Amino acid sequence: MILVGSRMKGIGLGVMGMVGMAIFVLVFHMRPGEPPLDVMMIILSIVTTAACMQAAGGLEYLVFLAEKLIRRHPSRIVFLGPVVVFFLALFAGTSHVVYSMLPIIYEVSLEKRIRPERPLSISVIASHIALTGSPMAAATAALAAILGYPGAAVDVMKIGIPACFIGMLAGAASVLRMGKDLPASGPLVLEDAAEPAAPAVARPLKPGAKTSVYIFGAAILLVVLAGAFPSLLPAWDAGKVTFSMNANGSLKMVTVIEIVTLAASAAILLLTPATPGDVARSSLFTSMAVALVSVFGVVWMSATFMENNQALIQGALGGIAKAHPWTFSIVIFILGVLMFSQAATTKVAMPLGLALGLPGPALIAMFPAVNSDWVLPGYPTLLAAIQIDKAGTTRIGKWVFNHSFLRPGMVTVVTAIVVGFLLTKVLL
């Protein structure tokens, strides 16, 4: 079902997951697992807030600042492009911010006669790897909820952000000589290309654009503070575990994120000219609907399979995972290839890791392995980079897997995992 759904794209993964659920429950009489309601609510809350910022012009303002920085140092585009994209995605909690940066990166590359494939490929990878550590990413919140101890969110961030940033720099270094250099003179755009990329045109910012960025930034700060100092949050008498509370009566981090981000959404709508209709029409809000359906179907199906076969899986993988914890990152990576979602992969793989007896720090170190949705070149960010590159240097190879993103993606993820293990020895 996952293989068929991944070929269908969009909500295909989710609806095919439900076909799998029907087979598991009605044919094999498996007991249904728990649906991923926590991850779905995180995605809904965070992406709604990002969509409000987009509707208010906040993303345009961030892209404007990023473009100024890139054009100030055009010769360093192979490193500067992905660094800027990394921090944009880290701040916004979504890889889709890269769409606005790709034309700028492509144009600057051509101006400096740098092969566009180099900065474009690693910039796409940077937009993905930045999410495993971003305080506004659903995958980060999901891992913190799965680990379940006070301060887990901060531990994920303090390991994930530097490990993924160093991994991204290694990925940028790996593409410095990738492919042939562009000729020093002559045309650079393919003859059969529809048209060359248009130069970026400065547009006036919407009123309230800066305000929306400040509100979004304040929401991030509150989420980080809540994760770092859980004692600041209200608590009640101990009781049973609920959707919003732990057994000891404290608020779950997922609950804090939902309250803070949706309250920030309200503040943006109240303090800027953006309207609810503008938010509903934004590209980020549309992408959220696709993500919700996909995560709901495929994660529920996977959780049902894992729970009903837990003893068999533990017997097959438990010994290897305990003796060589890093090998579990291969399992995570393969799941990520099939699921096309960091949050969905986290929700399926990390509980399995805990069931196999892997410690929390090891799972945090292996967290970047969920960023493997670029292996099959069908993810929208990859296709956008290929389409932007009218010079034809960014492409899918003859054998499909040998595409422009394979080298920077592998180097980035492997380096981030290695650095993550080193950092957990020092910081955790």
Fold and architecture overview:
By secondary structure, the protein is an all-alpha fold. The protein has 19 helices and no strands. The chain is globular. The two termini are 38 Å apart.
* Portion of residues within helices: 55-70%
Number of helices: 19
The 3D shape can be described as globular
- Average per-residue pLDDT, rounded, comes to 89
Structural class: mainly alpha
Uncertain residue segments: 191-200
SSE ordering? HHHHHHHHHHHHHHHHHHH
From the alpha carbons, calculate the radius of gyration and give it in angstroms.
21 Å
Profile the largest sheet: none
- Between the first and last Cα atoms, what is the distance in angstroms? 38 Å
Per DSSP E runs of 2 or more residues, the count of β-strands stands at: 0
- Sheet-strand content, in percent, reads under 5%
How many domains? 1
In brief, what are we looking at here?
This protein has one domain (34-427).
Output the keywords.
428 residues, 19 helices, globular
Q: What is the secondary structure topology, with strand pairs?
A:
Layout: H1 2-8, H2 12-27, H3 37-55, H4 58-72, H5 77-92, H6 98-111, H7 117-129, H8 138-147, H9 152-174, H10 209-228, H11 253-271, H12 276-281, H13 283-308, H14 310-323, H15 328-339, H16 342-355, H17 360-366, H18 380-388, H19 406-427
Helix pairs in contact: 1-2, 2-13, 3-8, 3-10, 3-11, 3-13, 4-5, 4-6, 4-10, 5-6, 5-7, 5-9, 6-7, 6-18, 7-9, 7-19, 8-9, 8-16, 9-19, 10-11, 13-16, 15-16, 17-19
